[in-house]
Write a structure and sequence with these properties.
alpha/beta, Quinone Oxidoreductase, Chain A, domain 1, 2 domains, 7-stranded mixed beta sheet
Amino acid sequence: MKSFWIKTTGSTTVLERRDIPVPEPGPAEIALRIRATALNRGELIAGSVMHGGGEKLGGTEAAGEILAVGEGVTEWREGDRVMGRVLGSGRGAFAEYTVMAVHQAMHVPARLSWEQAAAVSVSFLTAYDAVIAYGRLQRGEWLLVTGASSGAGVASVQTGKVVGARIIGTSGSGAKLEQLKAIGLDAGIRTRGADFAAVVKEVTGNGADVAVNCVGGSMFAECMRALAFGGRLATVGYVDGVYSTELDLQELHANRHVVFGISNSRLSEEGRAATVRGFVRDVLPAIADGRITPVIDRVFPFDELPAAKDYMESNAQIGKIVVRVA
């Protein structure tokens, strides 16, 4: 089968096309014919904990049809429409076929196309952990999202709106902020710098109750300054390449702030399964009934996956970049 591998070359990553055997499911796994996959920037950052360096079969989420089930699998059948994360050594969704652990598999809602289904798993599961599971966002609270036009940023905005929160986001593009208002953004701050805390407090009154930092270390201290008393800050990536920052312990202490990271790189299988169960319970119904529609910026054919990577690195997107596989 055709596949694309991520290789680190110096300080950059490149995609290399290879022909490899079709995988077969092991115990507690399903085999998929992939119909669509999507790009996630963190996987392609050279040297990051999410990428891990070296080389690997690319792609962390897929939507497709079940071809076969592994030993012990009783809840899924051949032909079922499935979406989910593709995690683990030797697995990847930049291919025509893949295997997926059953605890990552989710039914594709009938209203979604393959492309829309492929845009759900990574960004929305990340947003679920950041906003609901760990962020504990409540109706009427304020959610701040930096880099709000990214895949995880858009998913955080949409998830926060379903919770009943008010949403404020940052972006360097005024046009992007205007488009995000159509999916729930209540207030936008046009900036690429760490200069938004005062505006956040002016808009919200007391500061953000939850902040989702989709940018990285360059925004960390400003996100902390933008928090209300008891505010919670999630770090979901570091596309800015800034991996360290200063932390004002006096402010953290006095304001009872909570700081946490969202990553699957060292999460246990049960931890990953728990995220899927929570998402299916709390957010997937909103996707199924139309309150949330995944935002897709562009769709590329499979053979143009390197061009899709180049487009992602241009920072022009709003939401997800999807690749149609079959």
